[in-house]
Request: fold
Amino acid sequence: MIKKILIANRGEIAIRVMRSCREMGIKSVAVYSEADRTSLHVRYADEAYFIGPSPSNESYLVIDNIIEAAKISGADAIHPGYGFLSENAEFSNRCEKEGIIFIGPSSYAINTMGDKITARKKMLSANVPVVPGTTEPITDIKEAIKYINEIGLPVMIKATAGGGGKGMRLVAKEEDIVSAVTSAKSEALASFSNGDVYIEKYINSPHHIEFQIVADKHGNCVHLFERECSVQRRHQKVVEETPSPIMTDKVRAEMGKHAVAAAKAVNYAGAGTIEFITDNDLNYYFLEMNTRLQVEHPITERVVGVDLVRTQINIANGDLLEFKQEDLKQNGHAIEVRIYAEDPDNNFMPNPGTIEHITEPLGLGVRHDGYVFAGYKIPIYYDPMISKLIVWGSTRHEAIERLKRALYAYKITGIKTSIPFLSRILDVPDFVNGNYNTHFIQDNEELLKLKKKSSQRVEDIASIAVFVDFLANLNKHKDQRFCKPQSGSWKAFGRKRNVTRL
Amino acid sequence: MGYEIKVGDQQSDIKLLNVDGNVMEILVGDRNYKVDILEAEKGIYSIIYEGISYNVELISKYKKKYTATTLYNSYDIEVIDAETRYKNSRKKSEDEDSAYISTPMPGKIVKILVKEGDKVKGGDTVIIVSAMKMESEYKVVKDRIITKVLVKEGDNIEGDQPLIMLE
Reply:
């Protein structure tokens, strides 16, 4: 039985894991770098151990230091969270060797799914659809045309040695095939001294849809339905929701079966995610598998009603899954947005600094997974994500309205955050109608820009606030209660009550 | 001389006419506002004007330069007093470009591509700074000479700190 877990991570995910530990009566052990001495995960945990200087390659990524902390604390298991060492096969191996339970998959599963070519071959043998294409270079143009007609246009011609868009051609019409292959070949030869090209089906308006799976060590594996993650900026997810607005019951059941088959193909145990690339007609293809807990796992937890961290711990303990596929249902709709310390109106420039004030949204159907507090200085060494806001509604419409309300109430001062940008996403018609793909942000660039035009009145009100703040900070007003609330009114009331015996 | 307020490129006079507890009368340009104003939380002003409730969040990097955020908008606002006016009048006589390279946010120096005495061309990258796993390149706008390098690779820096002096 696991009695004490070391969490080899920081930030919101470390706290998220510790919450489940606390509920299960399991002791939690934090590790921290120099920059994180005052971080919330250190204060929330039962025990905490220092593991090195601030840069993550000298602390959170140093396997030896983490193993040492686990031994000193007597932790019987390690939860890696996401990022850092979560998909490191060497770390998984090392834990096993040291007799510490790794709450994650085996090194075999990590390695097989981590390599694109072996993963693709595994999936083909498990009958999971992959993006159609040739794995061998094209030698005969007639064969190529025949093959393209089989998988259907449009296709991409890609250089096997390729990169940076060189030696790549998009072919939409049959008569262009010959010229595209020839020119791609010569460009590839010129750029990489290797003229080999191959064919891959081009997915128009792609959606990123992923399936959550969990599998125990006894061969039981179920899926917990999909997450739609198509709102992305530079391959970074911004908004995730479940169910997907484009999903149908029939395709969901099929994709779920394929997700389970994919996990079983590598004898997977634990929680994992199968990512699919999907087109507008719901043709879907295996993209990759993430062998860890995802950032966006809370939306699944909310809609399916399963604590994924608790499930991970139970699986690591060797327990049987507590539920079967037919027990699981999607209830209502959940949306998550990620709040980053970055300036959306200045090319998303990272914006570390000190949080002056934070008001977290509360109320029905709102979950907030974060780790910052007033006075906390966000370190420059780690990811700029500061929190995740997750809302639930009985319908998608209700969930969007609730998220708008929650973002309205969410105030962070001292640094710039992506909150205003997220609010604008919720007003874009394509999002409201559920009609979007991974091009959403670039397609709606204009609508997502800061509205420069505003009324003279709002501008003046902002100017007044600045001017009054400036005056308040001038020495001559410092000792007066210039525009400051009379904060002692409760105290005054108390004093008065004592005297007058109200 | 009184104060001026600069919003983006627009500049107007601003004057506090009257204070009665939380209620202040303020003239912005030729527009007169009688507002109920309180700093409700640190950096957040609650303003009630003609029955409408406004929240303005302020981030101040220097004493007089602010970013003010309302529900839907964000403004760069500066209070111009006699001191600023004096400094501005001096700056214009020299050159419009700044005398040094700096970053708007704290971070770590990844690479310095120049040394003292180097002649650089407009558009050349002189320094690379990383913050939160993102690297940004900083370039010179015009042809310049590097007079002094104030930091070294691996240094942690604050925002708006001079890094490289230019001639």
